[in-house]
Amino acid sequence: MAEQYILSIDEGTTSTRAILFDHNGKEVASAQKEIPQYFPEPGWVEHDAHQIWIAVQTTIANAFINSGIWPSQIAAIGITNQRETTVVWDKDTGNPIYHAIVWQPRQTTKLAEKLKKEGYSEKNQAKNRLNY
């Protein structure tokens, strides 16, 4: 049986990285690709979701090519991402409706303030307390 590896995908704010680790946790190979950021208005930061997907595929492929490891040798995959970055996908086409809204912009500030004034902040906190 061929040696097994872990594939780690790190989707960051400015780049995508794929890293292959052996069973001892030693890095065997890695690949990285920058992701362009778009600033359509002051305080807005966006990514093209297609470019993110292509960067993930490219870095994984390059890590395999650089290491000589086959996809069948992957025992597990770990993914870390930007967490609060948001993409809305069209359920019929599978395409993004708009760019990914990255975690640090302020384009939803007015909506967030409106929801706070309407009492949703307290409702959200109360609901979350019930879940613990």
UniProtKB/TrEMBL annotation:
Pfam families in the record: FGGY_N (PF00370)
Listed GO MF terms: glycerol kinase activity
Organism superkingdom: Bacteria
Biological processes annotated in GO: glycerol catabolic process
InterPro entries given in the database record: ATPase_NBD (IPR043129), FGGY_N (IPR018484)
EC top class, as a word: transferase
GO cellular component, one term: cytosol
Keywords for this protein: Kinase, Transferase
Domain Carbohydrate kinase FGGY N-terminal: 5-130
Listed EC numbers: 2.7.1.30
Family affiliation: Belongs to the FGGY kinase family.
Stored PANTHER family: GLYCEROL KINASE, SUGAR KINASE
Protein name listed in UniProt: Glycerol kinase
Species in which this protein is naturally found: Lactobacillus helveticus CIRM-BIA 953
Lineage: Bacteria, Bacillati, Bacillota, Bacilli, Lactobacillales
